[in-house]
TrEMBL record:
Claim: RNA-binding is one of the keywords in the record: no
Keyword line: DNA-binding, Transcription, Transcription regulation
Presence of the UniProt keyword Transcription regulation in the record: yes
Entry similarity comment: Belongs to the LysR transcriptional regulatory family.
InterPro entries from the UniProt entry: LysR-type_TF_proteobact-type, LysR_HTH_N, LysR_subst-bd, WH-like_DNA-bd_sf, WH_DNA-bd_sf
Protein name according to UniProt: LysR family transcriptional regulator
Native source organism of the sequence: Nannocystis pusilla
Family annotation (Gene3D superfamilies): 3.40.190.290, Winged helix-like DNA-binding domain superfamily/Winged helix DNA-binding domain
Lineage: Bacteria, Pseudomonadati, Myxococcota, Polyangia, Nannocystales
UniProt-listed PROSITE patterns: HTH_LYSR (PS50931)
Family annotation (PANTHER family): HTH-TYPE TRANSCRIPTIONAL REGULATOR, HTH-TYPE TRANSCRIPTIONAL REGULATOR PGRR
Domain HTH lysR-type span(s) in chain numbering: 11-67
CDD domains named in the record: PBP2_CrgA_like_5 (cd08474)
Pfam families found in the cross-reference section: HTH_1, LysR_substrate
Amino acid sequence: MKSRFTIRPADLPAIAAFECVARHCSFTRAADELGVSTSALSQTVRKLERHLGVLLLRRTTRSVGPTDAGARFLAGVGPALAQLADACESLEGEGEDPRGLLRVALSRVTYALFIAPHLARFAREYPHIRLEFGLSDGLSEVVGEGYDVGVRLGEAIPRDMITAPLGGPQRMVIVGAPEYFAHHPRPTAPHDLLEHDCIRLRFVTSGRMQRWWLGDGEDEVELDVDGRVVLNDMLAIVDAAVAGLGLAQVFAGLVRAPLADKQLVRVLQSHSAEFPGFFFYYPNRAHMPAKLRCFLDFFRAANRPRG
């Protein structure tokens, strides 16, 4: 690096551009995030490298990544840029309604359970907050993928994240369609499920099959059920159960309507399993943006357990 190098205000955009490319390991994805062309972004980073007198990025025809010097530089400027962003975001909403884009990472199931039923009211109450939802049943990296907040089961949240409970404890229920029970006896004990056609869930990230848990405490039972249909989406499993393809174990909140419409019937009600539930999670930051605070407060209150 050149001796007596000092940061000029004009260098900050180039440093931010380098951080974005290094974080994504891609000029294309970084250019999309920054709203510039890849060629302009490449030129910006090259000018910074010439100014510093050191190569920051290793470029090949197939990949981009920081050099050793670039990794050290990234480790220093990354937190500093995050602090600048936090300071700017902390001013959002000062003297006016909260505003700006909020990006949320969550599964289709948690969106259906906690967000969709209340989204229209949130939009009316906070007209200047724009929302982007990334719906995926995989485990998204909130920071690495540019999200402000995510929703996961508590056990799957990294320890360095701040958490806030959402919706209280959740109960898993076992359901089947009247059409299915017209040809199969209703199970009266957990192990009866081993003789039934069960619609199974395969986890997207791990690829493993979900085992069925029933009961609580000393009465807890874990079963490796079998069936002809496997899906990697619980909403699709509900649809398959309504179609009479087998029994399903799903979140109670997903089947309130088909149960009320008698499209599904609950079985083994005394053996339904309960677990702590879902949590918002977000990075620890010195200043929480007003748009994030409003989002968390609204949806936590909207989904507060009754009774």
